[in-house]
Write a structure and sequence with these properties.
heterodimer; A: 114 residues; mainly beta; 6-stranded mixed β-sheet; 5-stranded antiparallel β-sheet; 0% helix; globular; B: 112 residues; 7-stranded mixed β-sheet; 4-stranded antiparallel β-sheet
Chain lengths: 114, 112
């Protein structure tokens, strides 16, 4: 089946740098995408979402970009802080799925050093 | 609001034993989900319930059963646990709309 994947399993940055986490998806029928943050020993926490009729959405220190032409999703974190260290997952929802089940990628581990 | 709660937090079973993982949400959400997460992997959907009274299989349903007891509660049962079911189990819920899911803290299950 089609699934969501991430380009890199790990990303290491310095505190204060901007981080970019990438995700590729293969299902052009997907109409909704979410980024989750998962800290060690905890459940995933919602960061930001975007609909397929948008190209960009901004939150507090985070921006999600959606490029439907190449089926690419990215999460940008500005001024990365040590507290941003976690595993980040992208997830998609297929328009033809019953209910609202999400398909998750494998995750990117972000490590922020001081 | 407590959000999504799960019990127990940790559990160790022997092969062949049975157990039920409990999940409850207090957000009046219609949809609830059970996922498993294995090391280095994303979350894989086991079962979900789009609304009270309905349940559907996800990507990896074999070896599991679910019960949507009422709108608040959605339980996951392992009838005969196997070592391959060693994992962290997450329950989630979502309301009307696009589908943002809220997750519980997880249950870490080890099957010996």
């Amino acid at each position: 089946g089609e699934s969501v994947g991430l380009h890199l399993p790990t990303l290491s940055v310095q505190e204060g740098d901007n981080s970019i986490i990438n995700c590729a998806y293969s299902n052009s029928a997907s109409d909704y995408f979410i980024w989750y943050k998962q800290e060690s020993g905890k459940g995933p926490q919602f960061i930001i979402d975007i609909r397929s009729n948008m190209d960009k959405r901004q939150g507090q220190r985070v921006t999600v970009l959606l490029n439907k032409t190449v089926k690419h999703l990215s999460l940008q974190i500005a001024a990365t802080q040590p507290g941003d260290s976690a595993v980040y997952f992208c997830a998609e929802k297929e328009a033809n799925q019953a209910g609202t089940a999400l398909i998750f990628g494998k995750g990117t581990t972000l490590s922020v050093s001081s | 609001n407590a959000g999504v709660t799960q019990t127990p937090k940790f559990q160790v079973l022997k092969t062949g034993q049975s157990m039920t993982l409990q999940c409850a949400q207090d957000m009046n959400h219609n949809s609830m989900y059970w996922y498993r997460q294995d090391p280095g992997m994303g979350l894989r959907l086991i079962y979900y319930s789009a609304s009270e009274g309905t349940t559907d299989k996800g990507e990896v349903p074999n070896g599991y059963n679910v019960s949507r007891l009422n709108k608040r509660e959605f339980s996951l049962r392992l009838e005969s646990a196997a070592p391959s079911q060693t994992s962290v189990y997450f329950c989630a819920s979502s309301g009307q709309g696009l589908g943002e899911q809220f997750f519980g803290p997880g249950t870490r299950l080890t099957v010996l």
